[in-house]
Specification:
globular, 14% helix, six-stranded antiparallel sheet, 15 strands, mainly beta
Length: 207
């Protein structure tokens, strides 16, 4: 009985191998082929053109825009700051050993702030110039057909404690804890603060 069972199993296995072998051989002999995108191009606002790229063949971001808001450019105190994987580190002044570090903090909120129906992203950045202060800013990455466009940053405070960020009815609300007037910076933030923002064109302003 065991011999008959073994023969049946062998016959089934042989038949399966016969029919599946072309597929197996193809997988073994053919390397992974790179994704080939079409040569279609999109004209950007500055007149340049970008093509499709990546495994999904999506259009690349136009100059001045970014495909990932953690790699976008934002304006802090009048100076452009470009993040790379959420971080920017530049010399404080020319030939200086000290640096200004800007870091993606988070507290993301997604919603339409510009009124175009696209999901913009608001979030918090921190910036430290080597001293004891850590300054918190709120910024927005505007979602457009050309990629994300970063806004100016609005400062919230020094060494605050962010709580929640939300976008409701075209308005950005940032909730955080701060200190009472006159309290030293060593005092933990304990006073709840809510600030409201909206867009004037592509400029983020406090309401």
């Amino acid at each position: 009985m065991r011999t008959i069972t073994a023969v049946i199993v062998l016959i089934i296995a042989s038949a399966a191998a016969f029919f599946l072998w072309p597929t197996i051989a193809s997988l073994l002999t053919k390397p992974n082929q790179p994704t080939v995108c079409t040569t279609e191009a999109k004209v950007c606002p500055d007149g340049s053109a970008v093509g499709r790229t990546g495994p999904n063949c999506a259009f690349a971001a136009c100059p001045g825009f970014s495909s990932d808001y953690k790699n976008g450019t934002y304006t802090i105190d009048g100076q452009p700051v470009t993040l790379t994987d959420g971080v920017s580190k530049v010399p404080a002044v020319a030939d200086s050993a000290s640096s200004v570090t800007t870091t993606y903090f988070g507290d993301d909120a997604t919603g339409d702030l510009s009124g175009d129906g696209e999901p913009d992203v608001a979030f918090i950045l921190t910036q430290n110039s080597g001293g004891s202060g850590t300054f918190y800013y709120v910024v927005v990455a505007l979602k457009t057909e050309n990629g994300y466009l970063g806004t100016n940053a609005v400062m919230l405070g020094d060494r605050i404690a962010p709580q929640t960020t939300q976008i409701t009815d075209g308005q950005l609300i940032v909730n955080y804890a701060d200190r009472k007037p006159g309290e030293p910076m060593t005092t933990p933030p304990s006073v709840g603060v809510s600030k409201y923002f909206h867009l004037q064109g592509s400029v983020l302003v406090e309401t």
